[in-house]
Amino acid sequence: MSHEYFNPVRSVYGAGALASLPKLLAGRRALVVTFPEARALGIVGRVEKLLHGQLAGVIDDVKPNPDVAELRTQYEAFWREPDSADVIVALGGGSAIDTAKALMVGTESGRFDDLLAGLAGGTGFVPAKLKTLIAVPTTAGTGSEVTPWATIWDRGAQKKYSLHLEQTWPAVALIDPELMLSLPAGVTLQSGLDALSHALESIWNVNANALSDTYAVAAVHDILDALPALMKRLDDVDLRGRMALAALKAGMAFSNTRTALAHSISYEMTLRHGVPHGIACSFPLPMVLERAIGQRRDRDAVLERALGPLDAAPRRLSGFIEGLGVKTRFADYGVGKAEAEAMVAHALTGPRGKNFIGMTSEVMA
Ligand SMILES: [Fe+2]
């Protein structure tokens, strides 16, 4: 039986790594896509100083969970002058990187709705034009810098689109923990728990392989150790670096497996109850772990490498998450028993839910 692991993203990381951006651009002009607070935090200023004449423009109104309503305007303005930039530099968390992934694939007409129609049609979307993406995460968690997919939300219609194309892998993930020093406690926690979820979801996953497991186990160990320490010392660049690397490892793991049941649950918690992604995909982890244990012997062995003896692992995991101030039961989020059961049942049938090992009828390995 053969296995495959694939990730084409060049990773450049370490404190001060942002300085290599001009070299990575190699003379090409760049559009920077970032979040509104980035300028006040001094991050946009640093990039402007580094890029000088190579900077084609800045889109700095990316909102959390990019919605079709905002993306349409940004996309159509960008593709009206497609020659202004060769490279899109996404500077921010998952929302900035996801926005950049939507922007980088041009439709023939330059119209955003043609992209949505292509994604919804199920026949596959082939970009007529393409820009290069350099992803510069300012949070340690999303993993979007080493994956080809993005989530586009349509809150009006209460649904989401998944962008996942061969062309939407970033060319470079440029990871500089110095950019994360100003992250507030709430976002630090949410992104760190998102990374933990990515790592664990890649283990209880039908697509897991030995290499994704190696990244995932290392990421879990790093996060269990570094995240509580970081929450006490947010300005510690070494701890920021450890979490940045842990999130990168988790990203490398789930770039090959995608996520599973906890993320499937999270989408409804975010859409219906407004729970931020990092909390929505991490509060169910102990519940999902309990379901995962005993499903497959090979997965149990990897979970034990990650979390220690399995009889105590769900308690240990809920203790870790609750110790960081995040409740781990549906009731804590105002979701009653009947709604929770329906939500889990629905989540199991979704595309991510089907990645969960508890859904397969495979014989125990
Ligand atoms: Fe996530």
Overall number of strands: 10
CATH fold label of the largest domain = Dehydroquinate synthase-like, alpha domain
- Mean of pLDDT: 94
Largest sheet: 6 strands, parallel
Assign the CATH architecture of the largest domain. Up-down Bundle
Q: H/E series, N to C?
A: EHEHEHEHEHEEEEEHHHHHHHHH
Structural class: alpha/beta
Assign the CATH superfamily of the largest domain.
Answer: Dehydroquinate synthase-like - alpha domain
Catalogue the ligands.
Answer: fe (ii) ion
Q: How many alpha or pi helices?
A: 14
CATH classification, class level of the largest domain: Mainly Alpha
Describe the structure.
The protein is of the alpha/beta class. The chain has two domains: 10-178, Rossmann fold (3-Layer(aba) Sandwich); 183-359, Dehydroquinate synthase-like - alpha domain (Dehydroquinate synthase-like, alpha domain, Up-down Bundle), CATH 1.20.1090. The chain contains 14 helices and ten strands. The chain has helices at 21-25, 43-51, 68-80, 94-104, 112-121, 185-203, 210-232, 237-257, 261-273, 277-280, 285-292, 297-307, 313-323, 337-349, and strands at 10-13, 30-34, 55-59, 87-92, 105-106, 129-130, 132-137, 149-154, 159-164, 172-175. The strands form three sheets. Strands 1-10-7-4-2-3 form a six-stranded parallel sheet, sandwiched between helices. Strand 2, helix 2 (43-51) and strand 3 form a beta-alpha-beta unit. The protein is globular. The chain binds fe (ii) ion. Fe (ii) ion binds next to helix 6.
